[in-house]
């Protein structure tokens, strides 16, 4: 399954992190923006060109130390079809460099519509008998709150194409508890029930290291719930947002890991992308600043969880 490949890269690099590629023009060094505007003007085409150049620089600097990237689709969609093309180019370039790609789209629908999302982001599109990758990411974030009808269409693609999904379970935002912490008649919280569904859905796409191709999004801002869900969902790999700019620290994410140092991949977006602004270094050094932050983050996790080993 897809997460087997991600797990192997995490172990190879001894680094359980993913770099979020959620670019805004305000994050991009002026020299890149100026070059894009000189060629394309202050247009959506110019904005998209700047995104691609910026992302490629980050990917080049990170690909040998960070196993995965996570582009958030909305940051590309706001620049129209040109931005969506930039998303596709970013995914392809990261994969060329050997990185695992998680598209953060939080897609949510049922039946044929969810099949279309699965085909677009994880599968291949039939174009008059020719099979073509539309986006071709390795994994996709999804909203499971429509129940099994919204997840089942993805499982076939995951099994056939060696892909994975991350289902929203306990998200990192402050108001997540308004719904996700509510108690059901069974006594379980909503997020606990969703975690249990992930375990069940994942039975159809189990991997060789004890984790299925159905992962869960569980935020670093709720370390107690991370630990709770690690115990209750032992076969579910976690994507953990909320580290860094949202307030989560290295100590907060430790409960997400199992005895082998596996079980979670921790996301940092602004912390890595904007490291050059935080450091106040030369704008041409933005990619190396991102690399320095990624190394700092990696070393912080290593100090807390130790060596990462393949499970049974």
Description:
The chain is an alpha/beta fold. It has a single domain (2-305), classed as Aldolase class I (TIM Barrel, Alpha-Beta Barrel), CATH 3.20.20. Helices cover 47% and strands 16% of the residues. The protein contains 14 helices and 10 strands. It has an 8-stranded parallel barrel with strand order 1-2-3-6-7-8-9-10, surrounded by 8 helices. A two-stranded antiparallel ribbon has the order 4-5. The longest helix has 20 residues, at 286-305. The protein is globular.
List keywords for this structure.
312 residues; alpha/beta; TIM Barrel; two-stranded antiparallel sheet; 47% helix; decarboxylase; EC 4.1.1.23; OMPdecase_AS; OMPdeCOase_dom
Please sum up the structure shown.
The chain is built from 14 helices and ten strands. With 312 residues, it is of the alpha/beta class. The strands form two sheets. An eight-stranded parallel barrel has the order 1-2-3-6-7-8-9-10, surrounded by eight helices.
């Amino acid at each position: 399954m897809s997460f087997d490949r991600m797990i192997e890269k995490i172990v190879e690099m001894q680094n359980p992190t993913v770099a979020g590629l959620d670019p805004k023009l305000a994050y991009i060094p002026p020299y890149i923006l100026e070059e894009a505007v000189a060629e394309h003007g202050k247009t959506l085409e110019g904005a998209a060109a700047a995104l691609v150049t910026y992302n490629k620089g980050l990917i080049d600097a990170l690909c040998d130390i960070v196993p995965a990237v996570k582009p958030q689709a909305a940051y590309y969609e706001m620049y129209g079809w040109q931005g969506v093309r930039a998303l596709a180019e970013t995914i392809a370039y990261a994969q060329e460099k050997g990185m695992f790609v998680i598209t953060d789209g939080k897609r949510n629908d049922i039946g044929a519509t969810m099949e279309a999302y699965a085909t677009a982001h994880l599968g291949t599109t039939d174009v008059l008998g020719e099979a073509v990758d539309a986006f071709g990411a390795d994994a996709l974030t999804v909203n499971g709150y429509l129940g099994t009808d919204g997840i089942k269409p993805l499982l076939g693609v995951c099994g056939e194409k060696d892909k994975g999904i991350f289902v929203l379970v306990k998200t990192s935002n402050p108001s997540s508890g308004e719904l996700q912490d509510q108690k059901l008649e069974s006594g379980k919280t909503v997020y606990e029930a969703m975690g249990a569904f992930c375990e069940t859905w994942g039975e159809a796409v189990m991997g060789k290291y004890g984790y299925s191709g159905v992962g869960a999004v569980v935020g670093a801002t709720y370390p107690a719930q991370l630990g709770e869900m690690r115990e209750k969902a032992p076969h579910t790999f976690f994507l953990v947002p909320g580290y860094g700019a949202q307030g989560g620290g290295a100590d907060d994410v430790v409960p997400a890991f199992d005895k082998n140092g596996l079980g979670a991949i921790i996301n940092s977006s602004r912390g890595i992308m904007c490291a050059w602004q935080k450091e106040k270094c030369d704008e041409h050094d933005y990619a190396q600043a991102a690399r320095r932050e990624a190394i700092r983050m990696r070393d912080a996790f290593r100090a807390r969880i130790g060596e990462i080993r393949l499970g049974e």
